[in-house]
Amino acid sequence: MAEQIPTIHTAEAEKDMILKAYRALLRALKPSLGKGDKKTIRQAFDMSMEAHKDMRRKTGEPYILHPLAVAQICAEEIGLGPLAIVCALLHDTVEDTHLTLEDIKSNFGEKAASIVDGLTKIAGVFDKGTSLQAENFRKMLLTLSDDVRVILIKLADRLHNMRTLDSMKRDKQLKIASETAYLYAPLAHRLGLYSIKTELEDLSMKYTEPEIYNDIYDKVQQTRKERNRFINEFSDPIKNELVKQDFKFDIKGRSKSIHSIWSKMKRQGVSFEEIYDLFAIRIIIDTDEENEKPMCWKAYSIITDFYHPNPDRLRDWISTPKANGYESLHTTVMGPNGKWVEVQIRSRRMDEIAEKGYAAHWKYKESSAESAIDEWIEKIRELLESPETNALDFIDDFKLNLFSDEIFVFTPGGDMKTLPSGATALDFAFEIHTDLGSKCIGAKVNHKLVPLSHKLRSGDQAEILTSNKQTPKEDWLSYVVTAKAKSKIKTALKEEKKNSVRTEKKF
Ligand code: MN
Q: Which residue from 195, 201, 380, 496 puts its CA 20 to 30 A from 356's CA?
């Protein structure tokens, strides 16, 4: 890919661009601006502009356009509020300019300073060798557990860098793009930032696999007309009936991303032409929160009056939301011409959470204390605090948890635990309590006796059987999949080894 030739603008034109970007930012923020916020944001903007005034990006543009773009993504695409915007505007100042954390603290307070500090610490972290990468990634997550805004701003920063990657040299492009696919896209996914995850994956693939990317892109374009015709033919009868029954709604055909088409081609060993679900139909219902669930099921009932559903493909993420907060009702029905069509039914609120993730969630629920994100951060923290996990193990374990699908398993008391698919009875035991895991000798799954290595399935109810004589065994590591179980077993085995060495010395 050729390097982009930097565009030169007159000073006047540049000033104009900057002001335009700043006004767009204020517009995006408008709903969340409280008293005095505008002034603080102006102050952060002025300070950042002054600090970066002699710097330019690789594209040739004035540097300030980058923090402005990052702030814009935070406000518009993640839905963050004024504090995060101030930090986004200043995110590169402590690292790259004369401004200090003290300056940030005295102007914008302790909280802003600690977020910018987190962002400074994780900046440029991935420039060294592999083990250092993993170690630093671990540090990055430790920082994130203090304030999740650090990671959200970091993701916005990465997204803007990916969008402007054309101006980098080929080797840099490759490095940044693979890092994005390896670390940032899964992180965005885990945080429920679906559109950002999808865009990061597509952008990354554009640089790492340019031929395949372009090929699929062209094919998607070429088949667009025909696809739209089919989508209309499919949706028209549903639309009419929903209108008749007084629904307020949007209905649209959503194309699969280039990256997910490619993943499916690889996974199933099929060609582009053989992929039947290039798109899904999405129905977004405007309704108040109490009525969301019945309204979604009512819409489901209307759809299945016209098209026959595949009973194996019904997914009810409304009764049981995914760990990243995703809520939606999915069904696959037999459409015209004998083609299966996936239909996603959700409320406007659910749609916003699905697209924008937790920040959107905060908008609806004032407190985030009980949200799954805290649970996730708690899990990461436990993992990080375990002294025996070495950095590379950690990143492998972490990746494992990021990429696998989830299953839901119930305790005898009816508590639900989320585990990665492939998790065994032993994983479940460790998930509940370390002691329960260490002393586990077996389990009863749906009242039937099973061994420790028994793989659990969604909806199972499991009771753990223990013995005080039991201790963690080496071979347990071959059938646990959760990072938590792995690290606890490794710690216990090391401990045991240390003790036996001591005993040998004594005699
Ligand atoms: Mn930056």
A: 380
Domain edges within the chain: 11-167, 223-363, 373-506
Q: What is the CATH number of domain 223-363?
A: 3.30.460.10
96 is catalytic: yes
Residues less than 5 Å from ion ligand 1, measured at CB: 92, 157
pLDDT digits 0-9 by tens, 373-389: 445 445 555 555 555 54
Which residues, 6 or more positions from 494, have their beta carbon under 8 angstroms from its beta carbon?
A: 388
pLDDT in tens, 256-277: 899 999 998 988 888 998 887 7
Is the pTM higher than 0.90? The answer reads no
95 is catalytic: yes
Structure-token pair, residue 202: 């597509």
- Beta strands 340-347 and 279-285 are parallel
Distance in angstroms (rounded) separating the CA atoms of residues 65 and 17 = 8
Ligand 1 geometric centre to CA of 161 (Å): 7
Whole-angstrom distance, CA of residue 56 vs CA of residue 120: 19
CA of 290 to the centre of ligand 1 (A): 41
Are residues 347 and 317 in contact, defined by beta-carbon separation less than 8 angstroms? no
The residue from 14, 96, 277, 406 that is catalytic is 96
Evaluate whether 203 touches 162 at the Cβ level (below 8 Å): yes
Distance 382 CA to ligand 1 centre (A): 29
Catalytic entry in 50, 95, 286, 375: 95
CB 408 within 8 A of CB 416: yes
**249, 280 contact by CB (below 8 A):** no
Q: What's the residue count for the chain? A: 507
Which of the following CATH numbers is that of domain 11-167: 1.10.3210.10, 1.10.260.40, 3.40.50.11220, 3.30.420.40? 1.10.3210.10
Kindly state the percentage of the chain with pLDDT values over 90.
48
Q: How far apart are CA 125 and CA 501, in angstroms?
A: 39
State the fold for domain 373-506: Ubiquitin-like (UB roll) (3.10.20)
CA distance 133 to 1: 27
